[in-house]
Amino acid sequence: MLRPYLPVLILLFLSVAQAIGMVVLSSVLSPGKATKAKSAPYESGMNPLGGTRERFSVKFYVVAILFIVFDVETVFLLPWAVSMRALGWEGFAVAMIFIFILTVGLIYEWKKGALEWD
């Protein structure tokens, strides 16, 4: 009864064993001494400026969310573009409505000043 699931169970066991083995091996082989240089913050090869609890403007988060939203819509349009011929004119019309709604949303955000970085 469990014979069809045997390869999956073997793969699961090997994956868990590898993960545990990597954690154990890294703790055994790595030096564990915390020095001042290792504990210092590091940011792109530069010493950090200012504190780590600095507040960001809300506009930063708005632009980040807008980027994610439009990126997700691109993911929705990619399968449509691949199968456009099979969908025909109906699929084309639905995609154009989707793009129109996105364009209206982008124009609204632009007019409200959400894309301004002052």
Report the structural category.
mainly alpha
Any idea what the shape is?
Answer: flat
| H/E element sequence | HHHH
Give the strand tally.
0
Number of helices: 4
Distance between the termini: 65 Å
Tell me what portion of residues adopts beta-strand conformation.
Answer: under 5%
Helix share of residues? 55-70%
Low-pLDDT regions: none
- Major beta sheet summary: none
Radius of gyration: 25 Å
Overall pLDDT level: 83
Characteristic terms for this protein:
mainly alpha
Explain briefly what this protein structure is:
The protein is mostly helical and 118 residues long.
Could you explain the architecture of this structure?
With 118 residues, this protein is mainly α. Helix content is 69%, strand content 0%. It is built from four helices and no strands. α3 runs antiparallel to α4. The chain is flat. The termini are far apart.
Please describe the topology of this protein.
Blueprint: H1 6-29, H2 36-39, H3 58-82, H4 84-112
